Amino acid sequence: xxxxxxxxxxxxxxxxxxxxxxxxxxxxxxxxxxxxxxxxxxxxxxxxxxxxxxxxxxxxxxxxxxxxxxxxxxxxxxxxxxxxxxxxxxxxxxxxxxxxxxxxxxxxxxxxxxxxxxxxxxxxxxxxxxxxxxxxxxxxxxxxxxxxxxxxxxxxxxxxxxxxxxxxxxxxxxxxxxxxxxxxxxxxxxxxxxxxxxxxxxxxxxxxxxxxxxxxxxxxxxxxxxxxxxxxxxxxxxxxxxxxxxxxxxxxxxxxxxxxxxxxxxxxxxxxxxxxxxxxxxxxxxxxxxxxxxxxxxxxxxxxxxxxxxxxxxxxxxxxxxxxxxxxxxxxxxxxxxxxxxxxxxxxxxxxxxxxxxxxxxxxxxxxxxxxxxxxxxxxxxxxxxxxxxxxxxxxxxxxxxxxxxxxxxxxxxxxxxxxxxxxxxxxxxxxxxxxxxxxxxxxxxxxxxxxxxxxxxxxxxxxxxxxxxxxxxxxxxxxxxxxxxxxxxxxxxxxxxxxxxxxxxxxxxxxxxxxxxxxxxxxxxxxxxxxxxxxxxxxxxxxxxxxxxxxxxxxxxxxxxxxxxxxxxxxxxxxxxxxxxxxxxxxxxxxxxxxxxxxxxxxxxxxxxxxxxxxxxxxxxxxxxxxxxxxxxxxxxxxxxxxxxxxxxxxxxxxxxxxxxxxxxxxxxxxxxxxxxxxxxxxxxxxxxxxxxxxxxxxxxxxxxxxxxxxxxxxxxxxxxxxxxxxxxxxxxxxxxxxxxxxxxxxxxxxxxxxxxxxxxxxxxxxxxxxxxxxxxxxxxxxxxxxxxxxxxxxxxxxxxxxxxxxxxxxxxxxxxxxxxxxxxxxxxxxxxxxxxxxxxxxxxxxxxxxxxxxxxxxxxxxxxxxxxxxxxxxxxxxxxxxxxxxxxxxxxxxxxxxxxxxxxxxxxxxxxxxxxxxxxxxxxxxxxxxxxx
Length: 935
Ligand SMILES: Nc1nc2c(ncn2[C@@H]2O[C@H](COP(=O)(O)OP(=O)(O)OP(=O)(O)O)[C@@H](O)[C@H]2O)c(=O)[nH]1
Description:
single chain, 9-stranded mixed β-sheet, two-stranded antiparallel ribbon, 6% strand, Dynamin_stalk
């Protein structure tokens, strides 16, 4: 009797053939759409009964068996259930991959063919090979599934077997059973101690969780008298998650005597019925139950597989249809006038696609993955250009010492009392000049993006006309370039304009007064903080000196100047300061009038260099003058500095005066410098003894390498602070201007220009009588690709119809009450948490079905809920996550028939894309999206 396909198999039988049909459809052509079906592999020691188990599942006698090593190459056996054939015609047959078109109706012949094919490769003397034999068995009496018969594990090499035969077979078996979608039938003979089972040992390696291993116990009928395997079948001995199934198969003598398979099944039934020790497990034993359980597992798996499969088929179909459109279906037009119209249409399409991509009107799937089209141009502005401007430091690379030197050099031989205009302008220009590089870089990035868009805008139909693509690429790139040149000129002019006139009247400019106020406030705050600390330290000692009374600012600034600052009134003394402050005359602002005629703008960097270098030659001051600048005046009488022009005016000219000023140097006129000889010029020390030594080319401070704030006098540091603030303020204005104008310039000269003019340009460049034929000549491979794409579309449509035969509830993954496979079973894991997986769920379903039809008197069978069996911890609804069957071995049918990837092959369309890309890359440069840092 063939395996009993009871109603619980109905679902599987309706579904699995559809999957097989799909596999067959895909096998016909080069549509590399793979199905990730689980397969069933038998593993175990030599002569444990592996082939016998497979045979029994198939229900036919066709595999070589014996007590010696028999299976010497893996056998991939695809069982395909067929409808019963018309009377008189054999309904069962086998086909080998290595003998295409040959149908084997005689199963003895199949056995012989397996033997011969084995010997053909590895000889007759017991050697083994890992090269599989692929066999399809078509029968109305089989469950549809793929089985793998593997050579048995052995220890001692015999015959032609190599010395490492044990390791070889082990590896061969592991190669199959390691695959996550392989269901392992671990076959162990019951007449050998289970603790020594090779099958279980190997299955443990490949499936440590035990979620896809079913134990199969053979030879129950020939166990030692007085022993039985009931405890094993109850899963009590060496527990497996999916438990054990006991079978009684044919002995060698039965085979020799030709005992028919149905007889054997009957005998098995009788065996379990007549052995009291197996009564409680009998309902779940036997070949029929093994088949049912495997089927349930497969069905559950396929249920999870189908929705994704349908989606992939539809996607593949879309890809092929799109490819067909690009290849031109039907054939391209022939008449000249029609060709002209077609070319015109293509050019207009191209220009429209380019514009649409810029405007964000062209949507495609790629857009979910990355920015594209106009959004990228905008990203260049917002995510690259603007942040790059923000990061710019107006006094980049200039130390305080250098700024100070520039200021001093700008003051010339007579020094200045207030902030000199020239050094400020020089530094401001230098800072603004920094805006040039990111601005030009922004233009370059947009240029790249436009070329990228131009590349992507190619209408798919152009793919078949390589010359047209080439000409298009040239024409478009030229056109984009023609917009980039004036954009660059404009950008340069804009930055030059910003540099050329330092507009101190700009309403946003902080101005000299503002800068001084800010610095004073800062300093006052610092001073207040430090005096607060001191006060805390000396609390209770009463008010301190005059410097501590009143505001911190007034302690620094002369009262009149302070008043002027606060009231905007005039100062009694002439002041020198920056021009461009809001009010003039004799107010505080007058302090900032320029000391000399302004120079024309010079090259900032060279000016800076020159002015810095000049530092050594410029005296830091002359006797009695505030050689270190106007800020000394602001700071005089400041108690904390310990300096005062009153007290030391007579003695000091500057630290530079060295020995000449030695007596007064320690409290010298010049702030900071008076603090000690070490602040003076190095030359001062060298010149001790009265005569002045030669003036070094750099100031000692710079020579010492310490041009930082700590090396400057307090006055110089304050001066530097004010100048820095002025430069920062002015730079911020220019940066703001350019952050607005540069994108506008680029948009105008490049983006909008190309968008508006591209169509005209293309028509002018390419819509030419002399080019028409060449441009519309198809590439040589297009015809072949068109027919391949058509074939693929046909196959995929067939696959779609095949899938339409699948009941909807299966595709949706809805539970099927009738089948029971939707009820998962929670197997307890070590921590007591329920672990549910499709395999166990399917097994539970099969068991439930078996229990329902069981004729045993047992209390629901050993796998039933609550029985304490390995499955017995109750059931759970199977909104189960599908097991991630990430890979699988190739199915039977064709070399490319494997199920190891599951991905849609887009080779043809990809080659089309590659074609486009290759054309483009010869003409156009690839446009990587540079990161922010690239700027
Ligand atoms: N009595 C009895 N004999 C069995 C049973 N199962 C298998 N046999 C016998 O055991 C021997 C080995 O069986 P095979 O099916 O060839 O074992 P195998 O594991 O495929 O062997 P190799 O492919 O050589 O590793 C054969 O003679 C079978 O008839 C069983 O349940 N009872």
